[in-house]
Amino acid sequence: MSELPDNLHYTKSHEWVAVNEDGTVTVGITDHAQDQLGDMVYIEPPEVDKELEGGDACTVVESVKAASDVYAPLAGTVVEVNEDLADSPELVNQDPYAAGWLFKLQPVEISVVDEMLDADAYQEFLETEA
Fold first, then answer.
1. CA triple 25-31-34, angle to 5 deg
2. For residues 101 and 24, what is the distance between their CA atoms, to the nearest angstrom?
3. C-alpha distances in angstroms, 65 versus 37, 40, 62, 84, 117?
């Protein structure tokens, strides 16, 4: 069973979202997603200042198995990317909910986060997907 922190919000496309004190959100992929993809070898983040719509493919994660898109879980402007992933993409595998975060957004509408899955609902979704 994948580790699922209770303080995060989840999408059915396997992204997680953390709401930060400054009003931004941090986005990454779930432990389940990184486990399915395998060992990460390259991460192509979005550009800082890029404006995204919810659902936009905005990041590419490449593993030994496949390349996969990561989708913006909500509309906003990219304010930061995880520079550590350029040299250490394996951080996504080792610590997907902390050191392996992908990017931060300044959301257009923060309340969209409330419509996402909580940890229990995401776990139920994973069980139905299996």
1. 100
2. 13
3. 6, 9, 8, 22, 27
| Inter-residue long-range contacts of 83-88, CB under 8 Å, 24+ positions, other chains counted | 85/43, 85/45, 86/43
- pLDDT tens, residue by residue, 97-109: 999 999 999 999 9
For residues 30 and 96, is the Cβ–Cβ distance under 8 A? yes
Q: How far apart are CA 16 and CA 6, in angstroms?
A: 11
| Below-70 pLDDT ranges, the chain | 1-3
- Residue 1: per-residue pLDDT: 47
Whether 62 and 70 have beta carbons less than 8 Å apart is answered as no
This prediction has a pTM of: 0.96
> Residue 87 CB: number of other CB atoms within 10 A?
8
